[in-house]
Every structure is written in structure tokens, then in C-alpha cells.
Amino acid sequence: MPITRRRLLAAGGGLALAGATAAACGSNTGRGGGGSGGGLSHWYHQYGEAGTEQAVRRYAAAYKKTRVSVQWRPGNYDQQTAAALLSGSGPDVFEVNGPTLDQILGGQVVDLTDLVKDVKDDFQQSVLAPKTHGGRIWGIPQTVDAQFLYYRKSLLDKAGVRPPRSLDELVDAARRLTDRRIKGLFLGNDGGAGVLGATPLYAAGLSPVTADGKVGFDDPAAARALAKIRRLYEDKSLLLGAPADWSDPSAFVQGLTAMQWSGLWALPQITKALGDDVGVLPFPADGPAGKPAVPVGAYAAAVSARSDRKEEAKEYVRWLWVEQTRYQEDFALSYGLHLPARISLARKADRLRRGPAAEASRYAAEHGHADPLLWTVASKVAYQDALSRIIKDGADPEGQLKAVVRTTEAELARVRKRS
Amino acid sequence: MPPAVLRSPKPKATRRQRNRTLWFWVFVGPFAVGLALFTYVPLGWSVVLSFFDAHNTVTPRDFAGLGNYRRILSDPEFRSSLTTFAVFSAIIVPATFALSLALALAVNRLRWAQAFFRSVFFLPTACSYVVAALVWKMSIFNGVRFGLANTVLGWFGAEPVAWLATTHPPWYWLVIGTVRLWLQTGFYMILFLAGLQRIPVRLYEAAALDGARPGWQTFRYITFPALRATSVAVALLLVINAFQAFDEFFNLLSDARGYPPYARPPLVYLYYTALGQGQDLGLGSAGAVVLALVIAVVTVVQARWSGLGRKEE
């Protein structure tokens, strides 16, 4: 059958109509203009713990003032949100592992100070501080994630090794616990460069950036601590190339390693598999000025400055992450294990009162540190690269750190100029 | 001839011509619009961004002149990514070239089940780089004792090797190289097969009459020269692909916390600079322009050197 222009146009029109109908039915992004009505769009990254997605959808459904559509996003969430914030098609509300200083300075997130002004002191200050810039709060911490050193009590007893209280003891313990079938320690498949981050600096009594905005690791103690992480690699005490990385306790519960660095969220899975044959420790101190270190961080609820419903979004965030304490408690304690961001909720949480969870909670309160806001992405990447070279290539720690000091100074100067 | 007779077929021809134009735009238009919207506009915008301080914005206001170019060219990490990839190309291009040519010659000589073997070698091309990278990373080359490669090593009493985490020796190149070879060799084999099937049989017959021995001599003096056009195109595509490598590197070596400083291709570096949390879109764009220029120069030099487009002798 010959195709005439009229027939072609009719077919094209039909296709366009079908497309528009499909879009109206199936592409509800929660934003205005769609066939199913407007509403707020709320993005979460994909949590590993079962039940979390259903829980956040339940919270959103319970909000009566406006419809909230939850997007559960797998993959590189931080990259996805960073890209989405550049356009108007992103979320209204989103959780963010930040926001970063550049996101704040770039005007990509909304000031949320007034939402928490009455309860500010009830938030864990270690995680609220990195959400604060210029005296304003740019994200509301949802829950606190902390990282610890898990160890198998029975394996340490068998090897005659005591739970390590210093970095030297950790190096020694890992070496003595290593044999043909099992490695002493798992710090992630990259040997610890990614997950440890600034933790060894804190363990040496230093910090990446000081409270007054200066480089905090231009000190021989930093190089000394990092050289000991290299020692772990040289001794072949580190598990490398495990099928699941450090955030998953599989290597630990499957007996591939005697000690593993992982998050508090993994504790329920670990105790389910190993019962009470597990202990938990902070990253051990190094040197005379050193102290134990527990990295803490918090995903925060933030409002996109590109949203055309900023006030509604703020109202919803206030409702969920400031007023609804029972949801906050449920979110922190019912799926995996996290520390509630609110001190009052953490104090009354039964799950944090016994066993390793109680110890972990105490360690986080006593030794918790979060990366400062001034420790920018560029500084972190330069530091992680240096740490990787020190650990895997045996590069000179002092020389590597000098280069990172220069990068960090340049970054501090840049953000000071933008502020 | 009367003018009426001359004019009469003209309207018919014009309508056909108009129809042709319409069909041309029906078929080409959507692609042209897509190309303009998703390739040329972003390309142009990227060049504009490269002259601005564009942190966390695609509509910057602070003009930076050549500042981003100075920064990217003085950045040792970017330079190292270019150097690493020059070395990678120097290894992977000849390796893929030789393997795909060898496979094409082998398959071409088969008297039975040729279609089967052609399909077997071509099938990996249909596999996504991401999936293949994950299979390589999690089951063949994982670092624990029950990984496939380590199980085989274990039969000979060797210790498990952390393939992706060991930099001395750099075993990660073995993983990256094998996955790339597995994925792309089949495609280039098909190109060579097409080239081989275009060589006239009479050439071989004439060579045989002149006393050429089958095997290396025939390949050296008949087959390889006759494949010149295909070989040049394959080499060119391989070089461009090598410089554009991203998927398997990213999926084999990155984790939630970032990417190690070794085996970092330029595109992964630019991805983290521009689209990662750093969001330095000005610097990333300057890097993209520099990389595009490098690829263009390498391609032109290679094309000139190999005589691409030169008339077949």
C-alpha cells in the first residue's frame, strides 16, 4: 500500500497521541502538570537493608497535606543528585550525603535553619556541624551511620591475640591472625584507601581541616600513621578482592577474615550469623597524641533550590524529620542498625542498650568524628589517591602528604574566595 | 518539439522530487535533530563552559579565560591518565588487531560449522561492557580463594592473587585487557571476514601458479595487502575506542568511595571531575576539549600514515 503524506501525518498524529497518553499514565514524576496531579518528589538512595524502602513509602503516604512520590534510586546516587540539581527536573526533597560546601555556595540547596531552631541542641552535634555553614543549616540529619572494627572473639583467643588498642597492636594482630585460609583484616578491596579516609589522621590526634579552617595534617604524625597502614598491606594481612566490599559483612561472617572494618548497620547481620562471638572497637589510636577514632556521617534531608514548591517541601521535611519522632526512630532502628540523629531518641532506644550495640553507641559518642565541610571533594580525592599510593605502591608518606597539603590549601583558598 | 509536450512530464517529476525530499527528511530529520540536540549543542556548550569558572552550574557567569586549560594541563593526574592510555592503546590495539585477524583467518578456512563459530566468536559483542566487567570482577578474577582464576592457581599450589588490587605486578591490566579482548575481538573479526571474502579467488590461483606456497607466504604477499583498507579502518576504530574507554574500567575498579589512582582513563577522570560530587564543569569541559583534540590529532596522524582513503592500487 503506497504511503501518502496524509496517511503518514495521520499515523504520526496517532503515535503522538498514544505517546502523550502513555506519558500521562506512566510517567508520574510527582511534579505538576502530569495527568495524575502534582505533588512533591522525594529521592532516597537505595539502602541495603530490607524493609527500608517500604518504610519510607509508608512515611510519605502518611503525609496528608500534599501527595509525596518517593523515588528509590539505585546506582551512583551522589552523582545522580549532583547532576539533577543542575536542572529543574530534579527532586523537590532529597537525601544527600552532605550537602557539599560547593552545593551550598552554588545556591543549590535551601536554607533549613528555621525548621530546626527549636530542637537544634537535640541533634548529635558531630553530624549537625558538617551541615552548617555561615551559621545556617542546609540539611537535616536523618540518622547517624558509624563505622567500627569488628573482630571474632574466638579467633583472637585461639591466636592468643588481644583486641587491638593501638595501631601497632592492630598491625601485629592482623599479621598473627593471617594464614592460608583466612586473612587478619578486611579494610575494603582497595586496602583501606577509600573507607578509612581521614580516620588514621584522627587516630593520630590530627584532623583534615582544623576548626579555624587550616590544613590539619601537616605533621609527621600523619605520615607515621599512614605508614602503618602500608605495613598491613606489606605483611599480606589484608583481605583483598572479596566478592562484597567493606560495607557488607559477608567476608567477615563467611570466615574470610578475622577482623573487618564496617558500619554499624551490619551489626544485626553479623550477630545473626555469629551470635555473641563478635566484638566491636573504634579505629585504634596511634602515637602519644593519638586517640581512638569512630567516623560518623549522616545522610540529610535537603530541599532543592530549583524546586518550584520550596515552601511545601520545607513543610514536609519539618513534618518528617523534625516532628515525626516515631518515624525517625523506626528508620534508625528497625532496618539494619543506625544511631538516631536525635539525642533524645538515642537515649531511649532499647536496641542500643546491650551487647556490641551499646559499646558501639558509647564509642560513637566518645570518639565520633565527621569530615568537616571544608574538606572538599577535590581535597578528599587527592588524599585518597595519596593513601592508595602509600598503601599499594609503597610511596613515601611524607612526600605524598606534602602534595595533598598543597591541594588542600588551594581548595581552602578557593572556597574562602567563594564564601 | 512543441513546448506543451516538453512541459507535460515536468509536474510529475517535481512531485516525485518533492516526495523524495519529504522522505529524506522523514528518515534523516529525527536523527539530525537528535544529533544537533544531544551532540552538537552539548559539545558547543561544553566548549563555552571550558572558559568559565563553572562549579555546580551549567550557566556560569565568572569568565576564567584559559585558566581551566592551564589547570587541566598542569594537573599530574590528568597527564598521567593520558600517558596511561597511550600505553594501554599501544598494547590493546595490536593485540585486538592480531587476535581478530587470526580468528577471521581461522574461521574463513573452516569447511564446516563456519556459521556456528562465527556466531560463537561474535556473540560476546552483544554483551554489555558493564555485565562483562562484573562477571570478570566477581567470579573469574575476584581475589579470594574460590574465584575461578584463583581456583586454577590453587591446583598448582599458588596463593590467591588479588587481581584488581595488586599494583606490583599490575595484575589489573590482565583483567582489563582480557575483558576488552573478549568483548571486542568478535566485532573486528567480522570486519576482517568481510574483507577476506572480498579477495578474489583468482588472486590465490594466480599466486599458486607462480609458485607461492600456501600459508605464511600467501598471507604475507596476497591476503594482508588485499586487506589494507579493512586493516586501516580497524586500527583507526581500535585507537578511538581505546581512548574512549570507560565502562569496564569504571565497573572493574571503582567503588562507592571513588577510583584508585592507577589505570584511570581520561574519561573516568573527567567523569569524576565534572559529574562527580566535585561538579567542576569548567575544568571537566576543558579536559574534554583537550581529549577530543588529542583523539583528533592521533586519528589524523594515523590516517595519514596508513594512507586512509588513498585509492587502492
From TrEMBL, chain A:
This is Extracellular solute-binding protein. It comes from Streptomyces mobaraensis (strain ATCC 29032 / DSM 40847 / JCM 4168 / NBRC 13819 / NCIMB 11159 / IPCR 16-22). CDD domains: PBP2_TMBP_like. The lineage of its organism: Bacteria, Bacillati, Actinomycetota, Actinomycetes, Kitasatosporales. The keyword Membrane applies. The keyword Membrane applies. Keywords: Cell membrane, Lipoprotein, Membrane, Palmitate, Signal. Gene3D superfamilies: Periplasmic binding protein-like II.
TrEMBL record, chain B:
It is a multi-pass membrane protein. The chain crosses the membrane at residues 21-41, 85-108, 115-136, 171-194, 226-246, 281-301. One of its GO terms (cellular component) is plasma membrane. Keywords: Cell membrane, Membrane, Transmembrane, Transmembrane helix, Transport. InterPro entries: ABC_transporter_permease, MetI-like, MetI-like_sf. It is found in: Cell membrane. SUPFAM superfamilies: MetI-like. Belongs to the binding-protein-dependent transport system permease family. This is Sugar ABC transporter permease.
